[in-house]
Design brief:
Elements: H1 3-20, H2 24-31, H3 46-53, H4 55-84, H5 88-107, H6 120-131, H7 135-152, H8 155-161, H9 163-174, H10 181-198, H11 200-208
Helix pairs in contact: 1-4, 1-5, 2-4, 3-4, 4-5, 4-6, 5-6, 5-10, 6-9, 7-8, 9-10
Amino acid sequence: MNPVFIAEIIICVTAGYLLGSVSFGYIIGKDAGIDIRESGSGNIGTTNALRTLGKKAGFLTFLGDFLKAFIPAFAARYISCNVIGDGAEYAYLLGLVTGLATVLGHNFPVWMHFKGGKGIAVTSGVTVAIAYEHWPYILIALAIFIIIVVATGYVSVGSLLVPAWALPVYAVIFKRGTAYFPVILVISLLFTVLAVIMHRENIKRLINGTENKLFRK
């Protein structure tokens, strides 16, 4: 592989992981005098922030987690294609790899002993960053997610059925036949695998009927 490509990947993976390791739920909770890891489900993500800290904190947590993925994935793709002059498909792949590193940083942040969130807001940020030119796809995915959550009351169900599969489905629809498609599909499926792994306790609770709904009476 071209040494320049190797350097790009190393820089993007490192930057993505470090940015992903910034835990906004924890920071916002600390600002409110609460350790979110010791409240509610103990998760540092949007849903637990919403339940334990309120709507504003939940929104800020989502926004922070979304942007910390969107910005590096979009920047990697844009700089690769428009500044360095890499091909568009390679630039897409680089953005995808950067996004995956961000999700890994969010899920396993080194400064929090590798105990982080579940990566759905972060995965959503990556999806928008590299699929923005097909914005109807993003809007349809968002609509389906909202419908599922409203209909079931479970954020975990919506997360496992929509954001977790958004990237591999996008790859099959829009990247099939391109030179990097096999690699893109494999990396896209890693987002799905990570989402399932991080939601394994939610899956058990859903099976047992003990999963908490978003808005509990």
